[in-house]
Amino acid sequence: MGQKLKITGWVAVGVLAGALTTVSLQTVARGAMSPLPLEEIQQLSAVFGLIKTDYVEPVDDKKLITDAISGMVSSLDPHSQYFDKKSFAEFREGTSGRFVGLGIEITQEDGLIKIVSPIEGSPAFRAGLKTNDLITKIEDTPVKTLTLSEAVKRMRGQPDTQVTLTILRKDESRTFPVTITREEIKTHSVKGKIIEPGYGWIRLSQFQDRTVEDFVQKAQELYKQDPRLKGLVLDLRNDPGGLLDGAVAISAAFLPPDVTVVTTDGQLADSKATYKASPEFYGRRGDPLAGLPAALKTVPLVVLVNEGSASASEIVAGALQDHKRAIVMGSQTFGKGSVQTVRPLGPDTGIKLTTARYYTPSGKSIQAKGIVPDVMIDETAEGNLFAALRMREADLDKHLTSGQGAEVQDAAREKAREEARKRLEEEAKKTPAERRVPDFGSDKDFPLQQAVNQLRGKPVLVSKTQTERKEEKKDTP
């Protein structure tokens, strides 16, 4: 059924990133070692020996051990993961916002790789690649034989190395090769602008190492353009999360000093923690928020969220909602209320392990439920056309429960997803200008228009179809 779906950026980004992202604790804790289950360890040793002696062909010792570790960790929940040397390096790239490659945002369409957008100033941008260009070959390999992740790996590589792409540009009816030199790409997770006089918009697409510094810079730019802002929209739609200290810092930018932003609870003593709106909880080198305009503490604020808002972005939305600092608008969020800690196993391997659940200041677990907006808003004037296609935490196999009751299954969800798939297939046939879900921040961005209406005290077109996902039933004794 899933093969019917053409993957497009404005649906897939929330699905994949929301499912795979992590909130990373910066502390490394060690608990007391539990006694090893000797009988089970002996069974593991026996299986290892049988594979080595009886399997049809020789198997590498290292592969057997790493696969066993990987299986042990991945069986716990969707977010725990073993990192080998290569995946550990890729994970670090993801949180740093830096990687070596060409500098293009891509998606997959009809078996080809489609360029969504070249990053301004990147090697791909300088080489003249354009939005909607199709990549048909990477070196001599047709992309129809590759998955999207395989294509990404082939385009990434070492700095100053070259890769040749074959490009199909439909509007010019020509195919041509382009040789591009890879270099380090720095992605920017913060955008913003004055939407109209008196009203600003800041979008966070992810919580990376530089997100807080970039947020401060963008806020300063907006207040320099319009020192008398009457309202601000903080856009967290399709923000898959990232670093915990970044979420605490962004929350602190709007909250009074020292109030609770989020609490965590797990087995280890260090996982039982309270994070407050204070530099000691988010400032690695002093207070990165020191340069913020003072008016940010009191400016009327709307937070935009959707089903792709996960993890760190849910921490921010939950904190600002619980302290009544902002009106949260949009759709119920992804529901990733668990904390992952990255533990090194050596110089270049490690594991990402779920170590705690997190709770909003009022004590609510968001795990497998999400943040419920104060005002439900659809993604278009015609309704929430494709939201059912976005994966939620509760849809993931082996997902952690909230710990606050048994979950309720939604029988109508699969029917809604099938209807949304059909609509998306029709939508994908249209040109970008004709599609009903425009880019975030554009003048046709329906939820953003409603957020500004809220700030201006004008009527808001509230969703007529969205309802809160059912409260979890409490376990009965």
TrEMBL record:
Q: Which GO terms describe its biological process?
A: proteolysis; signal transduction
Q: Where is the composition biased (Basic and acidic residues)?
A: 410-446, 466-477
What is a GO molecular function of this protein?
endopeptidase activity
Return the annotated region ranges for Disordered: 400-477
Q: Does the keyword Transit peptide apply?
A: no
Domain PDZ: residue ranges: 88-156
User: Which InterPro entries would you find in this protein's record?
Assistant: ClpP/crotonase-like_dom_sf, CtpA/B_N, PDZ, PDZ_sf, Peptidase_S41A, Tail-specific_protease
Task: Please tell me the species this chain comes from.
Answer: Simplicispira suum
Please name one Pfam family that this protein belongs to: CtpB_N-like
Q: Does the keyword Secreted apply?
A: no
Q: What is this protein called?
A: Peptidase S41
UniProt xrefs under SMART domains: PDZ (SM00228), TSPc (SM00245)
Q: Which NCBIfam families match?
A: prc
Membership in a protein family: Belongs to the peptidase S41A family.
| A GO-annotated cellular component | outer membrane-bounded periplasmic space
Coiled-coil ranges from the UniProt annotation? none
> Keyword annotations for this protein?
Hydrolase, Protease, Serine protease
